Amino acid sequence: MSAMINKENILETIRMIQDENLDIRTITMAISLFDCADPDGPRARQKIRNKILTLAGHLVAVGQEIESEFGIPIVNKRIAVTPISLIAGATSEDNYVEFARTLDLAAKEVGVDFIGGFSALVHKGLTKGDRILIDSLPAALAATDVVCSSINVGTTRAGLNMTVIKDMGHIIKEISRLTADKNSIGCAKLTVFANAVEDNPFMAGAFTGIGEPECAINVGISGPGVIRAAVEKARGETFDVLADTIKRMAFKITRVGQLVAQEASQRLQVSSGIVDLSLAPTPRPGDSIANILEEMGLESCGTHGTTAALALLTDSIKKGGLMACSHAGGLSGAFIPVSEDAGMVEAVKKGSISIDKLEAMTSVCSVGLDMILIPGDTPAETISAIIADEAAIGMINSKTTSVRIIPVYGKKAGDEVEYGGLLGKATVMSVNPFSSKEFIQRSGRIPAPIHSFRN
Amino acid sequence: MRAVITVIGKDKKGIIAGVSGELAAVGVNILDISQTTLQEYFAMIMLVDMADATLGVPAIQKKLDIKGKQLEMQIKIQREDIFNAMHEI
């Protein structure tokens, strides 16, 4: 047996893939569009299309090849591009919907699931291109299917741009209205960040930052089912044992991510970027973060102890994952989207989790309020205030936070909404009924926190 | 390149013969065979060398799928790298 790997290990891998839904959530090709900038709009869009088709033409086929050879499912293939405000800003156009359409068509042509980067980084202020892009958002997200957008409204270094945060409340309401016929799904394609990262492979927030190479492959792992099964085996053990159990499993999961990243970048002949250690749930049974927290001993996700459980989970994943790959990056932690996680959906239905608890949880996991459905008549200022709260957590704690919130047009708290696919389904949650209007209407900037002055 | 083939299902006659016949036909050389029971199931694990294989892993998987249906076993071929990556530091 010297030539052979331990058979228990082989069977463990098989079980992880078949019974515990181990998969790679995404291989995302990051493409720089800087050389596509052109004063002539149609020419810029032609260049963008050509570049995407040239670089990502084989992405899906290579992804499928790897899936088949290694016997590991790769759920999504995606593209992330340079924030479009930086490219489209070179034109004299006053509306960027056509840029979104170009991205949508090119993405469909190469067969990827999503394309991210209809984005703007406005944490300190807006350029002409940023302003036009934000104003184009409702029409752009209504006119396209697979284009994702992100707006960075704050950083630890720069503070929070409250004027843009105020605008985003109205923009999100408008997207909700324009995509009312599809339960306001346009809002699911927009995330509002603080401390956005440049190499995130996950949607809706993926874009290719200005420090990134011409083209790179970034991989996002998955595997909540595997972690849940491991935690189940540690039932009744101390937290020390629990943390160690998760760490070991995170190592194995990340190793698969690293292998896929390496193979994909070699075969596509582009740079190998990062592996994002985020544990990403899907609506499939057994693929839930909430269920992991419950397996740790909580009756229902959202009850007291949930934040501590999530902190342990996130930290253990990072520790196991960091040792398993040479370049970790992106968001790396645990995602807690609501509609995409069957356990979270159940927790909302039972009334064991609220927006307030989710907000607390985002201070110890990666990212933030994600795929949360709220009543369609929620005031724009309340949405802005939710964004401000979340961004403040990111700014003060030097971490990435985001808000992907859907005021579902015509729906009220308690209604159920089904999106299908990875986006799942969920119950509309209630928001605090008291007004934040005067606070939000102040505009201006919340200054950078004291601890950002480290030089 | 080496690959691992796992055959899982209810134990019956002709499993090794069936699978190894399929592999010989496409130039895949068996380096090692091991078997174990997995709860009530039988699991056979083969380490194979693909150096002289006339088909790639995806095409061989398709052939094994057909064989697996005949034998009522689940047969999977995966490059060895995934197991090494996960279980070796």
Report the C-alpha radius of gyration of chain B, rounded.
13 Å
Distance between the termini of chain A: 57 Å
Total beta-strand segments of chain B: 4
The count of domains of chain B is 1
Count of distinct structural domains of chain A:
2
Instruction: Report the β-strand fraction of chain A as a percent range.
Output: 15-25%
Mean pLDDT of chain A: 95
**Assembly of the depicted chains:** heterodimer
- What is the radius of gyration of chain A? 21 Å
Under CATH, the topology of the largest domain in chain A can be stated as Anaerobic Ribonucleotide-triphosphate Reductase Large Chain
- Low-confidence segments of chain B, ≥5 residues, pLDDT <50? none
What structural class do the secondary elements of chain B suggest? alpha+beta
Helix content of chain B: 25-40%
Largest β sheet strand count, sense and barrel closure of chain B: 4 strands, antiparallel
Q: H/E element string of chain B?
A: EHEEHEH
List keywords for this structure.
heterodimer; A: 455 residues; alpha/beta; Anaerobic Ribonucleotide-triphosphate Reductase Large Chain; 2 domains; 13-stranded mixed β-sheet; two-stranded antiparallel ribbon; 15 helices; 15 strands; globular; B: 89 residues; alpha+beta; Alpha-Beta Plaits; 4-stranded antiparallel β-sheet; 3 helices
